[in-house]
C-alpha cells in the first residue's frame, strides 16, 4: 500500500499533492454471498500537510462488484463510488483520527473507506427496477 512520506515532503517544502492507488482488497472483506470484486479498487486522493503536522487525506474510492443478484440469483455487475476522508495526527490518533510517525500509511484508511462504501446487497438490473417501482 502506498505511503505519504511526510518528513521528506516537508523537507522539500511540498505540502499538498494528489495520489492514485489501485489495490486488491482483502479476502473476506465483502459479506454478500456469491459476490466478489471485479478488478482492483481505485482511489483518487488529495493530501494536505498542515503546520501542526496533521495530514488530511480525502478523495474517492471506486470499485466494481460482480456475482449473483441478492434477490433472484441472476448475474449482476455494478460499479460503486464512495468517499475517502481521513485525518492523521502525530504520534497517535484519538479514535476519530489516525496516527502516524513520519510516514502516513494509507492501508487502514483505504480499508475503512471501502467498508463504508460497500452496499448491503448486489441487485441485477431487473431487481433494481422492481425495487424502484415498489415491487416485492
Layout: helices, strands, pairs:
Blueprint: E1 3-5, H1 6-11, E2 16-23, E3 35-37, E4 41-49, E5 55-68, E6 75-89, E7 98-99, E8 103-105, H2 107-117, H3 125-132
Q: What's this model, at a glance?
A:
By secondary structure, this protein is an alpha+beta fold. Helices cover 18% and strands 42% of the residues. Strands 2, 3, 4, 5, 6 and 7 form a six-stranded mixed sheet that branches. A two-stranded antiparallel ribbon has the order 1-8.
What does this structure look like?
Helix content is 18%, strand content 42%. With 136 residues, it is α+β, with helices and mostly antiparallel strands. It has one domain (3-132). The strands form 2 sheets. Strands 2, 3, 4, 5, 6 and 7 form a 6-stranded mixed beta sheet that branches. Strands 1-8 form a two-stranded antiparallel sheet. Strand 5 (55-68) and strand 6 form a beta hairpin. The termini are far apart.
Q: Largest sheet, if any?
A: 6 strands, mixed
Low-confidence stretches: none
DSSP strand count: 8
Oligomeric nature of the chains: single chain
Amino acid at each position: 500500500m502506498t505511503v505519504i512520506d511526510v518528513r521528506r515532503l516537508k523537507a522539500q517544502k511540498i505540502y499538498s499533492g494528489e495520489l492514485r492507488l489501485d489495490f486488491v482488497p482483502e479476502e473476506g472483506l465483502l459479506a454478500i454471498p456469491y459476490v466478489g470484486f471485479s478488478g482492483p479498487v481505485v482511489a483518487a486522493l488529495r493530501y494536505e500537510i498542515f503546520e501542526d503536522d496533521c495530514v488530511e487525506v480525502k478523495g474517492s474510492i471506486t470499485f466494481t462488484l460482480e456475482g449473483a443478484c441478492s434477490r433472484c440469483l441472476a448475474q449482476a455487475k455494478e460499479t460503486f463510488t464512495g468517499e475517502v476522508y481521513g485525518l492523521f495526527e502525530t504520534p497517535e490518533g484519538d479514535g476519530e483520527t489516525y496516527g502516524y510517525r513520519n510516514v502516513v500509511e494509507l492501508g487502514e484508511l483505504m480499508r475503512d473507506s471501502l467498508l463504508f462504501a460497500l452496499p448491503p446487497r448486489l441487485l441485477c438490473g431487473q431487481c433494481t427496477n422492481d425495487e424502484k417501482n415498489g415491487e416485492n
